[in-house]
Amino acid sequence: KKSEVSGVMAKADIRPKSIHDAKKWSADVENLYRFQQSGYRDEVEYKQVKQVDTVERWPETGFVKKLQRRDNTFNYYDKQRECEDKEVHKVKVYVY
């Protein structure tokens, strides 16, 4: 029988099973781009590192609005798409 603490610890260390490069732009790829610009794999890692439950998003588009980087400075993002087509292949998509 696992204790409550070890359950929380296991949850806090989620690792991706596989990884591939994004092929075409989508809203998910846009948000991954924003997390990766700020130094994180994705929303899962961001929430683990920063110990937050939610990420600030634009209500109109659902895109990430603001992220705190590992050095505690902030990256702010526009409502519109920021990941250009030439950048899409650089985005890593993690599968859990």
UniProtKB/TrEMBL annotation:
<dbReference type="InterPro" id="IPR020186">
    <property type="entry name" value="Meiosis-expressed_gene_1"/>
</dbReference>
<comment type="similarity">
    <text>Belongs to the MEIG1 family.</text>
</comment>
<protein>
    <submittedName>
        <fullName>MEIG1 protein</fullName>
    </submittedName>
</protein>
<dbReference type="Pfam" id="PF15163">
    <property type="entry name" value="Meiosis_expr"/>
</dbReference>
<dbReference type="GO" id="GO:0005634">
    <property type="term" value="C:nucleus"/>
</dbReference>
<comment type="function">
    <text>Essential for spermiogenesis.</text>
</comment>
